[in-house]
Specification:
This protein folds into two domains: about 10-50; about 55-255, no CATH class. About 20% of the residues lie in helices and about 20% in strands. It contains five helices and eleven strands; from the N terminus they run ααββαβββββαβαβββ. It has helices spanning about 15-25, 25-55, 100-105, 185-190, 210-220; strands spanning about 60, 75-80, 110, 110-115, 115-120, 130-140, 170-175, 200-205, 235, 245, 250-255. The strands form three sheets. The chain has a seven-stranded antiparallel β-sheet. Strand 3 (about 110) and strand 4 (about 110-115) form a beta hairpin. The longest helix has 27 residues, at about 25-55. The two termini are about 45 Å apart.
Length: about 260
């Protein structure tokens, strides 16, 4: 049963209705069909990226400039589960290569030695994730003052340094921007040492500018926001307990 031009009559049963939906040139149906087709395509791409990365969401949009010049606000970053394709010199069984180790092995990511990781500050999944470079590992209770680069701490002893001795084992991290992130995250109070369980994945590739679309829809772009300060991002505490004067690179997930 057809209604002309070999298009089935939708009243001929479920199979005929489906065939009509797929073949009719009715304007409203064409719109719905294209919308469904686009949604399925996006879903398939998302599932493919998830299969490759092992992380959901596999894409995040960078909200702030604390990783400049190696990452910019508005970059779209592909994140991968840190255990995948990890080199043999990664830290323990974490799959993460620290800056300290990378220097010895000539390993580089995003313009510098060491992995750049996405992590939950203080393990709090309700805070905006941070994407910073891993500098070195500390053990539980370790006095890591002598291990630190003196340029990146704001104290003259372990006792005067935040998170020293280390309250627990984890990574010491830092943003690449030497102007807004002149100290380690742990020295600024952005996070305590990053436990492996807090790491959501390692950053692998960036697509410039493509993250602005997601940031705009998420309301993370505020007109007049000063460079280096993220809207809706993680607050980075100052060393003297005053309001934040350093920033962390906050992320907006792309789902």
């Amino acid at each position: 049963m057809t209604n002309g031009d070999d298009v089935p009559d939708p009243r001929g049963g479920p199979r005929a209705a489906l065939a009509w939906f797929l073949r009719t040139d009715h304007g409203a149906v064409l719109f719905v069909r294209e919308a469904v087709s686009s949604a399925l395509t996006v879903a398939m791409v998302g599932l493919l990226l998830f299969a490759v990365s092992g992380v959901w969401p596999p894409l995040v949009a960078v909200e702030s400039g604390s990783m400049q010049p190696n990452m910019e606000r508005g970059d779209l970053v592909f994140v991968m589960e840190e255990q995948r394709f990890a080199p043999e010199y990664a830290t323990g069984d974490t799959g993460v290569v620290t800056h300290e180790t990378a220097v010895r092995h000539g390993y580089s990511q995003f313009g510098g030695p060491g992995d750049v990781v996405v992590y939950k500050p203080y393990g709090n999944g309700r805070q905006t994730p941070v994407i910073h470079r891993v500098r070195f590992w500390v053990d539980d209770g370790e006095n890591w003052y002598s291990k630190a680069d003196p340029d990146y701490v704001d104290a003259d002893s372990c006792e005067a340094l935040r998170n020293c001795p280390a309250p627990h084992a984890g990574f010491i991290t830092k943003g690449d921007n030497e102007l807004t992130n002149d100290y380690y995250d742990q020295a600024r109070g952005i996070s305590s040492p990053v436990k492996p369980a807090w790491v959501k994945g390692t950053a692998e590739y960036r697509l410039p500018y493509l993250g602005w679309v997601r940031l705009t829809f998420a309301g993370a772009v505020t007109p007049g926001t000063p460079t280096g300060v993220e809207s809706g991002g993680v607050a980075a505490g100052a060393s003297d307990g005053s309001p934040a004067n350093a920033t962390s690179t906050a992320l907006t997930p792309v789902t």
